[in-house]
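Friendly challenge for the regulars: who can give me the C-alpha cells for this chain first? No prize, just bragging rights.
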Amino acid sequence: MKNKQVVVVDGDDASPEVMIPTVNILEQMGLPITFERPLIGQPALDAGLTGFPDEAREAIDASDATFFGSTSGASTAALFYLRWGKQTYANVRPCLWTPGYNSPLANPVGIDFTIIRENLEDLYLGLEGDIEDLQGLNFFSKHARAPLSELSPGKYAIKAITEAGSERVIRFAFELARKRNSKKRVTVTCKYNMLSTSDGLFLEIANDIAKEYPDIEYDHYIIDDFLCRMITRPQHFDVIVMPNLYGDIMSDGAAGLIGGLGLAPSGCFGEDYAYFESAHGSAPDIAGKNVINPTATLLSAAMLLDHLSFEHEAARLVDAVRCVYEAAESLTPDQGGSGTTTGFCEAIIERLAQN
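First reply, four minutes later:
Bragging rights claimed.
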C-alpha cells in the first residue's frame, strides 16, 4: 500500500496531552503512515509566523487527511480551512455505548447511533450584523406581524439552507446507513414546523431522497420531539442527519447519554478530503494535570485509520479501548476512575500487543 501522509495539529491547552500519545500509538502500530506537524497555531506564532502559514496550508493540501487537536483559538484559521476550504460538509459523530462507560442512564445497553451534522451552512456562515444595516430591505416577520425596522436596534443572523448542501449531506447519511451493520434507518430532524421555508426545504429534500433508498427505513421528527426521543429511546436510532446548528447541539447531548464528551470522536468528510478530531474542547481547566480522557482522541484516530483503508487496524484500536473499559482499570476521573492520561494510553499499548 502506498504510504499515507497525515498532518497532525496537537492543539492547545490539554489537547497535546492526548494527541501526542495517540499519534505515538499509531506509529507503534507500524503502518505506512507519515505524520507531519507543520507549524500551526501557537507554535507558528511563537516562531514569528501567522497562525496558519502558507507552508501549513500546502502540507494539508498534499496530505491524505488531517488529525486535529482541540483548539482554544490559535489554530482556528487552520480549522476553518479544513472545513470551508476543503469543503468537508459532513460531520460524523458516532454515539456508541461500551460496557464501562460512565453513562447517567439506567440502561444504556444498545445505544449505537451516529449523528451527521451538515458542516458548512445554516447559521454557521457567519452572516451577522446590526439590524439597522437591513433597513430598506422590506423584511417583514410573519410571526411578529411587524417589519424588521420596528425591532431595531439589535442584531441579526441569517440562516441559509441550500438545495445542494442539503442533498449531499442527506445522501451521505443514507449511504452510511447502508454500510453500517445495524438497523438500516435514517432519521431527519429540524424545526420544519416553524421554519417551514428553510428547514422545510431540508425535510422536502430528505423525503425525495428517501424514495431512492427503499432498503433503508426512514422517519423524521421536529427537533424538540427528536430530543425527547433521543433521551427516552436512544436505542431506536441508527443514522440521524440534521442542519448545522442542531447537529452541533444534539451531538454533544448524545455524548452525554453514554458518559460525556471525553468519549466522543468525530470525523468531517468532503468529496476528496477528511479530517478527524475529538468532539471535546481543549480543556484548559485540567491542562498539565495528566487526567484528560484520551478515549475520544483514540476513537477519532480509529476513524482516521478506517478512512485511510486500514480497517483491520482501526478495529484493533477500537477493541483495545473496549477492553480497557471492560477491565475498569486505568480509567480517568471523568469516568469514575483515578487513572491518568498516560496510564490509560499505556493500557491501550498493552492491549494492542496482546492481539
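The first helix runs from residue 16 to 28. The mean pLDDT is 95. Your move, everyone else.
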